[in-house]
Amino acid sequence: MTDPSSSLRVAMIGHAFMGNAHSQAWRTAPHFFALPAHPEMAVVVGRDAGRAAEAAARLGWAESSTDWREVIARDDIDVVDICTPGDTHAEIAIAALEAGKHVLCEKPLANTVAEAEAMTAAADQARSRGVRAMVGFTYRRVPAIGLARQLVAEGRVGDIRHVRAQYLQDWIADPEAPLSWRLDKERAGSGALGDIGAHVIDLTQFITGSRITELTGRLETFVKERPYAESHSAGSLGGLSGTASTERGPVTVDDAASFLATFAGGAMGVFEATRFATGRKNAIRIEVNGSLGSLAFDFEDMNVLEYFDARDDAEVAGFRRIIATESVHPYVAAWWPPGHGLGYEHGFTHQVVDLVTAIADGTDPSPSFADGLQVQQVLAAVETSSDTRTWQEIPPS
Amino acid sequence: MTDPSSSLRVAMIGHAFMGNAHSQAWRTAPHFFALPAHPEMAVVVGRDAGRAAEAAARLGWAESSTDWREVIARDDIDVVDICTPGDTHAEIAIAALEAGKHVLCEKPLANTVAEAEAMTAAADQARSRGVRAMVGFTYRRVPAIGLARQLVAEGRVGDIRHVRAQYLQDWIADPEAPLSWRLDKERAGSGALGDIGAHVIDLTQFITGSRITELTGRLETFVKERPYAESHSAGSLGGLSGTASTERGPVTVDDAASFLATFAGGAMGVFEATRFATGRKNAIRIEVNGSLGSLAFDFEDMNVLEYFDARDDAEVAGFRRIIATESVHPYVAAWWPPGHGLGYEHGFTHQVVDLVTAIADGTDPSPSFADGLQVQQVLAAVETSSDTRTWQEIPPS
Amino acid sequence: MTDPSSSLRVAMIGHAFMGNAHSQAWRTAPHFFALPAHPEMAVVVGRDAGRAAEAAARLGWAESSTDWREVIARDDIDVVDICTPGDTHAEIAIAALEAGKHVLCEKPLANTVAEAEAMTAAADQARSRGVRAMVGFTYRRVPAIGLARQLVAEGRVGDIRHVRAQYLQDWIADPEAPLSWRLDKERAGSGALGDIGAHVIDLTQFITGSRITELTGRLETFVKERPYAESHSAGSLGGLSGTASTERGPVTVDDAASFLATFAGGAMGVFEATRFATGRKNAIRIEVNGSLGSLAFDFEDMNVLEYFDARDDAEVAGFRRIIATESVHPYVAAWWPPGHGLGYEHGFTHQVVDLVTAIADGTDPSPSFADGLQVQQVLAAVETSSDTRTWQEIPPS
Amino acid sequence: MTDPSSSLRVAMIGHAFMGNAHSQAWRTAPHFFALPAHPEMAVVVGRDAGRAAEAAARLGWAESSTDWREVIARDDIDVVDICTPGDTHAEIAIAALEAGKHVLCEKPLANTVAEAEAMTAAADQARSRGVRAMVGFTYRRVPAIGLARQLVAEGRVGDIRHVRAQYLQDWIADPEAPLSWRLDKERAGSGALGDIGAHVIDLTQFITGSRITELTGRLETFVKERPYAESHSAGSLGGLSGTASTERGPVTVDDAASFLATFAGGAMGVFEATRFATGRKNAIRIEVNGSLGSLAFDFEDMNVLEYFDARDDAEVAGFRRIIATESVHPYVAAWWPPGHGLGYEHGFTHQVVDLVTAIADGTDPSPSFADGLQVQQVLAAVETSSDTRTWQEIPPS
């Protein structure tokens, strides 16, 4: 048993959008959840000393640093939380694991399958030494999503026939929206596919408890060139805003992705991810149709899960708008009374809770790096399928 | 037993908006429902011979007339369907009943309680001679409303605590919308209160099976004067459209009404009727909260009833969006497959079905003139309450 | 110019579900719309004399017949309305067109591309003789759909990037739901794909004004065998209900279809059609995302079109819930005041209006047989793609 | 100008539900907003030393105390944040103001008008010494509510005709739900009226910028006796949960309230507050109808404001579902990208931001104690009206 008074000293690498969200989670979790260990926000790492120091002050980290290697080498760091762009994940995560640090790595796990495989191998080795690794698919920890998973696990949906999932945003629908690192294949790995498609791949597999086995898909870049942002750096909000310059550069990632998939259990999947769905801001929409019931979720109304029970009397059957804010719903008991909604950042807090609990309990947190690798394999299969215009199989994990 | 091949010869008085809707119902009912008697559309009556003849041709009536008294006196007329403004209801209905004709009278039953009482007395006398009278609260016959009533009757809602009802329109929110007979107290009796408030009074009492016993209310006329319409007559669409003239006349009815009420069973009622709810076109909204469940309806999504079952597991409890288009729902089996919605006019068709069935079966159709009188008493109580700023009791029926 | 008092004598072949809907349209259109010619419901044709006679009486046709060839040969028939299963469309339609009759043919146009080509050739020849042919994609004539098409045509949506369309039903989600002709490839041609997928193929092309040029797709039959219905015939409601027998037969059509598509303008399409979406009754869902705006429609709330205008101030931008019941919306002026919803059958009435108008005006009604052929080509491409697991091109029309 | 590095040392009195929410706000505000002064969470006060110490540790306060008078007397306390039941507000707030402490007081301001008047007088005197007082109507600071207020202020709604507001909960719909201090008039002052009705009174006045001038209302207690909770104290979650004992006690507050109101500008108001709306968890619903537009809000979908603009083309007019998560919306720029929803607690964080800013700027925070007094006068008028069954005027402030 872990001593409840024990501390976990955390280093966070990167302090942009994700670093901000992770910081709020590290700060908040201990105040709402009885954690088996106390996370200490020890150090934040950034490329620029001044900006890192500013981030430390603003986000609540005791120290700042510009050298992640040095930080990872410190004896007084227990957990490394990686919030940098995808091209740096593998190097940092593997080094951290080898240094015996527990790792939380933002999604997608890496920019390539090869990197993800190396990371997973490192996580497997680290596990044997009691070191834990987790990939940050935080949307799993939205209560309504947790409830969806639970209802499937309880058999309330029956045999799953259909999974349809869309992740719709519109922040570059305007062809004059500026370039950012998120539109650069070197940094971001992929575009809508990896940035947001990865989430619905993970979520549908999580909810259904079933893996994608094959797919045929397609990527599209609608706007091939864009103006450079006046200033853009990895530490910025990632092109979510910014003024445009007159010079233009190429968009090297996909603007949108779509694919048909088969799940292990035989369900048909239809997926879509785009940053061009005008008017949709963060619409993560998932529907599951089974022989006994159906589920529907849309992050734009994130505290709600819709559920149809085919066994209800025909007279009163209908999709139920479950406001997933009851104390019986996942994570909710720690928060507010029914109907007092949670927000985007709460999923990150729940992630901290689950990670800290797993570390303290000596169990493997979920989703694992292997889960992240499998998502990466799906992403790669979509790319290959788009290039070759063929169906692709996903290797069994 | 009525001979199924027997005919009911119908005369319709008035051929404006309501006459149009009633005609569609008389034409359509025999094609979807197995009626115990066959309605024949014998004659339509209007004030102007040319327009009445045109209406007969357009709406499918065999003949036209300008003299309702003459029509009522005819031996070959069995049913009189009254679609004229409220100030004429009493005279026509009483004469028709005395002449031994079954009567369907549009709502509100009359413009005053005294008229409604006289009509109800006439209906009572006629009943003893096998003559039937019905008032046209057609919204009762929207399937989702019928289902609401059924769920209450089945005990699924438990003890009713709250009834909230709104009938929201916006067709005179513009102060320059022209005068019409519907804004003239002489013709229309009242404004939003009687025209649309009457519907939600009837519907809430129908759904709950409980009468309003007391109330305190308030009427308001926001716009006291309006331009005359270029041409306006009782036979027109009643000011729902039309061009305005430069001359102005007084609005003598209420633009909006609101009242608090008590139902016989102790439920608290809150009512509102207005033609000034910008953006709401025909929003008949009714909610019922009981100890075991709740119901919610909005005519702007008229094929849907929302239902909350408090006995559902907390994990999956939520308002169910019941699409009331299943064959088990009231009236629906005669129509289309599930999910193929019905429209506004279907309630009128169902009204014909129920009236013809009652006449053929020798039973009293519902809602009766007594029901119409009771609604009139509620309307009158709102007016008195508004004038005197006091609570008013409704006499028990 | 056609004489407004002229008649069009109509023969309807088939009197099941579609015959019922078409009959209501033929009966109703003249009462709400000023038609340039008067449709007479002359004769209904069915395989069984007794049932056809019953249908004539119930549906309002003057006569009945069991011999469509004889009916088509009659001089006093002007229009042939084909409501039979798809395997009979080609023979009847071609014969009718050759006999100089205007033809309205239910969708899908045929069960094979070859049949559809022959029908289109016949329609082309007939056109030169002033004979008109139309295929019955009635959902185009739902006002909210007509409005969607109009908003695209007005440029309000801009360059279209995404089209996602689903037609979701659940009437055979239960593996014990009985076989019907709709599950028999010989009669129905295909399953969900042709029965309902055809509608969303047509609707998305209609709304966007752009054709599908290539696709990759997949068909699935989840339940391979089902009990025979106790009795089933082409004249029944098509397996939408019925009791099951103990004997079982094979399901020879698809239960569900999904495909990715490209539109001529470069938009990405994602399509799905299924009868296994538990809880979805008739959910025709279409979303279009363009550079200037987006549209969303769901037939389960059929009077509503959602519209996002990207040019709105950011402060007040949001999807607008347009209740498409204003007099400015397509077809609506003929009906009821705003907010008084229309139903499923109104699309059929509008179809009659447009067909009669085109015949009287001597213009080609839309959608044409060529449009129906093109949809058939898309359906065939999905089948081939599913068989070969390759992308398929649609020949330009 | 306040030194940005200056500190505001805060003492919080009470650590139950509201104390928990306030603590999260004090902890969080400095990390997302550039505050002109730094709040230090100095001390939390509770009646029980052990529980207060536990609360301090859990909620992040440096110290705990059981003596609020002693705390208020301390020189090193700048702000007193009052989160206790209403019967204690006056004594603590007045003492704190007299001691020169800025005060944030939870709503309702007091349990009686007399207390609220005394508090307002104390606030007025304190203001002259530069001491600030604010009442905690936090829902004003939900971004969608702030946006509603802004749209009215910008004239987008025009002359307001109707205000309808409901605050619906269901946590005591079960007659066996136990007693808590919230059902005890001594402690809570009133029931649904003061606890939740107060919020919609404040919100509608805030959004419309107009005061309620008269009303007629009614209170009801449906369940007169309830079982005592096994244990209940002011520090508990206030009866929102708990096991029931066999002994029963009287419910001395209202279960539900409803009233009709007039706003200064002539708008008709209809209000309802209840804890018996089965299935409604925290439904704060507000609609405003004006001559140029309408607004609708429901806290159960708290990131959304619906807005109808009557000046839109009829073709595309409809209620807009504004997801109030754009950077142009109130408070949002500090948080996440569009579509990443905020939760219940964010309003409290915004309250801290506004209070700290006002203190630092030397301006009066809003809502003031005078605003709280006015709400208290409305609450008192509802009670008097319910007792006397008469309309009541609200004194002008």
UniProtKB/TrEMBL annotation, chains A, B, C, D:
Keywords carried by this UniProt record: Oxidoreductase
Coiled coil: none
A Pfam family assignment: GFO_IDH_MocA_C3
Domain GFO/IDH/MocA-like oxidoreductase, chain residue ranges per copy: 148-295
Source superkingdom: Bacteria
Keyword Oxidoreductase: yes
Domain Gfo/Idh/MocA-like oxidoreductase N-terminal: 8-136
PANTHER family, sorted: BCDNA.GH03377
Designated name of the protein: Gfo/Idh/MocA family oxidoreductase
Naturally occurring in which organism (per UniProt): Nocardioides endophyticus
